[in-house]
Structures are given as structure tokens and as C-alpha cells.
Write a structure and sequence with these properties.
The longest helix has 22 residues. α1 packs across α12, α3 crosses α12 and α10 packs across α12. It is built from 12 helices and 19 strands. The chain has an 8-stranded mixed sheet.
Length: 413
């Protein structure tokens, strides 16, 4: 069993075949959730699963579960998966790799006539990207009860089309109630979407946790006035106050390494004229860290700084926390299975805490879960030039195979 390996060239071919659906001129993929292209992608993956002898179950939010039976069908399945919807300027590997790596695990087990005690399932989740409908990670979120099916169905895109309508239209509004599908353990294989593995020249990232995040909208009110006649000491410049808070956002993150993150990614300046002193600035704040204690400390520090800035400058400042996801530690048994598999196979490894959200975060609320990372070129993702080496993708899939077999139990056929 230690010599067991997947078929890397078959995995690569599957990735390239799926990438043709929604292919862009720059070499990426645009396959937004619940569009006709998403339906075509779903149909292709389901066709491949059926050709591999898998049975198909679809739940009411459109999550798809593809099952290879075990010798003990009463056991909850060992599940792997990810998503196949993409960003508007997405790549070939984000999400898609996790689904097709799971399919390749099944194909390898079929080739070698290996039976598992627990069933093996491959899943793909609806609207993980959140690029057409919000909330993000919709399918897995409904599955774990983070929000209701009715809330998801009511979400609309920019054209006013709803999730419920579009699910029915593309034929993927299933009958199973989300969350009723049993999961014994869950593994998700993914490109890192960051530069750490490549920078450290490691093949496998063992993911012990996903960072928590706090998102805020901050609005600073000043007074717009003429840039020429108004002396500096008499100005109420909202942008100058806002930049103090922006700099403190970065400073807070730097105070809590190695996983502190602080980002201002969106800024709106009113009236946005070169010879008018800004009277109002609205901007986003994104704080992240690996545990709740540190993230809460960062929250308290930005809140205190905003309050102090308002007192010192006389400005009206509103800070509203608009989103919060707690840090997600993965189950020690699943993390250990990934670590054991990588060591058995002789791959170089390091622990990598994920800074991005994944469906595994929500699944981990219901079942033991873990993730496997492989490098992506220059750490670039959510971009049409997203790329990964076939050998790294093969290695991650080999680790997935052995980690799942550790959890599922093996009987040679």
C-alpha cells in the first residue's frame, strides 16, 4: 500500500478538459455559479463520476455528492471535495483541483480494485466564490447551518436573478435537505493561493488551521472646502484622519506576527476632486489572525484607536464590523493523516495556516476536517494566469489518497 500512487497525467488531463468550459482568452476560466457554463461544468464532472461507477446525490442548495460504496455502507463516508465555480477572471486550479483530485483518488482505487471499509465520496459545493451571489461559501454554509436555505435562495445577482430560480433553471435543485448528508471525515486539497510554499521550496502544505477575519467599514466625516484659500490649521480634512487609521491597521497586524494581517483594500473619497479638501472618506478594514484571542485583541486595538482619533481630531468617525469569521482549527486526526501521508511518500512539508476561506471551514463544524496545500506559481490565484506544476498537483493528490485511506480503512480486492 505504501507504493500506491495516482495517475498524474490523467489528473492533469481532467483539469485541462474542465478548464475548456468557460475558457478565457488569457488562459483562465470564467464559470460563475449557476450559469449555463456552471451547468456544463457540473454535467461533465457528474458524467465522469458516473463513468467511474459513482452514485450521485444532489441537495436542495445544489451541493453534489458522488459516492463509491464501501464494504460497510453503514459507516459515514470519508469525503473530499471543493468547488468548480470560479471568479470572473479565475484560473484553472482554484477549487477545481480539489474536486478532480478526489475523482482521481476514486479512479485509482478502481484501477487497483482496492476496497475501502467506509464509503468514499467526492463533493462539490455551490457558489464557493461568492462572485455572483453572496454570501460566499454558500453551499457549505447552508449545509452546516451557518445561514438558512431561504436566505440563500433569496440572494440575487446584479441582474436580479435569484439563487433559487437559477438552481432550478440549470437542473441542480436537488431533493436532499442540506446537512442531512453524513460525513465521517472531510479532506480538501487546494492550491495554496499564496507564496509561502514556493518561497520555502516545499511540496506539501499541512494546514492546521484557517485564519479568522474581521471586516469593517470605516467612515470619517470632515468638511469639504477649497484647497487654496483654506489654511492648513483650519481644515477638517477627512482623508488625513482616515490615513492615520489606515496606517494603524497595518501597524496592528505587524504587532502580532506571524499570522497578523491588516489590509485596507477599498477607499471612497468624497467629493474626489483635486482642488477640494475631502469631506468624507469611507474605507474597508480587513484584520486576520490565527486564533480568537489575538483577533479579538486586534479588534479592541483598532476600536480604541478610532475612538482616540475622533477625540483628538474632532472628527465624526463611524466604525462598523460588517463580517466576522472565527478562526478554524482543523481536527488533529485529519491533520495527522495528512502529515503521515506526506511523510510516508517522502514529500517535503511545512505547516501553512490558510489566510483564505474554504468550504472546509464550514464542513469542520459538523465533521473532522483537514486540508492539503500545494504550491502555485508566484502565489497568484483569483487570476487568469494562475498556474501550478503537474508534479505538485500529483503529489497533493497522492497525499490525499493515503490520508483518505487511513481514515476509510482498506481491504485489498
Amino acid at each position: 500500500m505504501n507504493e500506491l500512487r495516482i495517475n498524474g497525467s490523467r489528473l492533469w488531463t481532467s483539469l485541462m478538459d474542465l478548464a475548456r468550459i468557460g475558457a478565457t482568452d488569457k488562459g483562465g476560466v470564467k464559470r460563475l455559479a449557476l450559469t449555463d457554463l456552471d451547468r456544463q461544468g457540473r454535467d461533465l464532472v457528474v458524467q465522469w463520476a458516473q463513468e467511474a461507477g459513482l452514485s450521485i446525490t444532489v441537495d436542495r442548495i445544489g451541493n453534489v455528492f458522488m459516492r463509491r460504496e464501501g464494504t460497510n455502507p453503514a459507516l459515514p463516508p470519508i469525503v473530499t471535495g471543493s468547488h468548480i465555480d470560479t471568479q470572473p477572471t479565475g484560473g484553472k486550479f482554484d477549487g477545481n483541483y480539489g474536486v478532480l483530485a478526489g475523482l482521481e483518488v476514486v479512479r485509482t482505487l478502481n484501477d487497483l480494485r482496492i476496497k475501502t471499509e467506509a464509503p468514499i465520496e467526492v463533493a462539490f459545493w455551490t457558489n464557493e466564490e461568492g462572485s455572483r451571489f453572496v454570501p460566499v461559501m454558500m453551499g457549505s454554509g447552508v449545509f452546516c447551518g451557518a445561514f438558512s436555505l431561504e436566505t440563500a435562495y433569496a440572494a440575487r445577482d446584479v441582474d436580479g436573478l435569484s439563487v433559487g430560480e437559477e438552481l432550478a433553471r440549470i437542473g441542480y435543485q436537488g431533493e436532499q435537505t442540506p446537512g442531512e448528508h453524513p460525513i465521517g471525515a472531510y479532506f480538501e486539497t487546494h492550491i495554496e493561493q499564496g507564496p509561502v510554499l514556493e518561497d520555502e521550496d516545499k511540496v506539501i502544505g499541512v494546514v492546521p488551521a484557517v485564519m479568522g477575519l474581521s471586516w469593517y467599514d470605516c467612515t470619517v466625516e470632515g468638511m469639504e472646502a477649497h484647497a487654496g484659500p483654506t489654511p492648513m490649521h483650519l481644515r477638517r480634512d477627512a482623508l488625513q484622519v482616515a490615513t492615520r487609521i489606515m496606517q494603524e491597521t497595518v501597524a496592528i497586524a505587524n504587532r502580532y506576527p506571524p499570522y497578523g494581517r491588516g489590509t485596507v483594500g477599498m477607499v471612497q473619497v468624497f467629493p474626489n476632486s483635486r482642488n477640494v479638501i475631502p469631506g468624507r472618506v469611507k474605507f474597508s478594514i480587513d484584520l486576520r489572525n490565527v486564533n480568537d484571542e489575538l483577533l479579538n485583541t486586534m479588534h479592541e486595538e483598532i476600536t480604541a484607536f478610532v475612538e482616540r482619533s475622533a477625540r483628538e481630531t474632532g472628527s465624526k468617525i463611524q466604525l462598523e464590523r460588517v463580517s466576522y469569521y472565527p478562526p478554524c482549527p482543523f481536527h488533529p486526526d485529519c491533520v495527522g493523516a495528512v502529515r503521515n501521508a506526506a511523510a510516508k511518500l517522502g514529500y517535503s512539508t511545512m505547516d501553512v495556516v490558510s489566510g483564505a476561506g474554504h468550504d472546509a471551514i464550514y464542513v469542520a463544524r459538523l465533521a473532522p476536517a483537514g486540508m492539503i496545500f500545494v504550491p502555485c506559481k508566484d502565489g497568484i490565484s483569483h487570476n487568469e494566469i494562475e498556474d501550478a506544476q503537474p508534479t505538485h498537483l500529483e503529489a497533493g493528490c497522492n497525499v490525499l489518497l493515503h490520508a483518505m485511506l487511513e481514515r476509510a480503512g482498506v481491504l485489498a480486492g
